[in-house]
Design brief:
By secondary structure, this protein is mainly α. The protein has helices spanning 8-14, 18-44, 49-73, 75-82, 90-113, 120-129, 134-159, 169-189, 192-200. It has one domain (8-200).
Length: 202
């Protein structure tokens, strides 16, 4: 079936190869939600699995490197200016960092695979602050991210087509998706686990 360019899925198709670059940018900003959504689009045949997986994973890892860089080069300045906004404190990052001395590899891998239990940014900044070797950081983030991306895309592929049977529900869902992404980002930033780790210890 040929879709009109004004249809949400028609817009996706009209982007051609650029839609994969859009996936990279979207994953950089909010990976997990987009991973589920792309699983649904894969089922409908609007995306190819391999380039989709690669771009989602690369975008998500790029965001991780950004947090790592903040910890490596500018954590003190960041916390001084925006600590309250990020629900983070210097003491909290230091406490998180102490755990890395014993469990570096496990913490990075599990945090990535589980989206940090709401405290992923704290873990990534702590890794940068403690100068965890970039090669090791990349390896375990890549492994954990591969598992996470596969699981979320599979969930979207298997269960995302529920809205297909609601007619215009698909169009409404794609319109609401950016709002859900924003809300999820806010909730993750303000989540209780992050506040506990960053402000009050484990």
């Amino acid at each position: 079936m040929t879709l009109s360019p004004v249809h949400p899925l028609g817009v996706i198709d009209s982007l051609g190869a650029f839609k994969y670059f859009a996936l990279f940018l979207g994953s950089f900003l909010e990976g997990p939600v987009l991973m589920v959504a792309t699983g649904f689009l894969l089922r409908l045949g609007h995306l190819n699995s391999i380039p989709t997986f690669i771009m989602l994973l690369m975008g998500d890892l790029a965001a991780d490197f950004a947090w790592y860089g903040i910890g490596y080069w500018g954590i003190d300045r960041l916390l001084g200016r925006f600590g309250k906004i990020l629900c983070a404190s210097d003491e909290g990052v230091k406490r998180t960092g102490q755990m890395f001395h014993k469990y570096q590899n496990k913490i990075i891998f599990i945090s990535k695979m589980t989206m940090g239990f709401g405290a992923g940014a704290a873990v990534l900044m702590a890794a940068g602050t403690l100068k965890v070797p970039l090669g090791r950081f990349t390896l375990y983030n890549f492994l954990g991210g591969s598992v996470l991306t596969t699981v979320l895309m599979t969930l979207g592929y298997l269960f995302g087509d529920v809205s297909f049977f609601i007619g215009l529900g698909l169009r409404a869902g794609l319109i609401v998706l950016p709002i859900l992404v924003l809300l999820m980002g806010v909730l993750r930033t303000r989540s209780t686990p992050l506040k506990r780790m960053m402000g009050g210890g484990w």
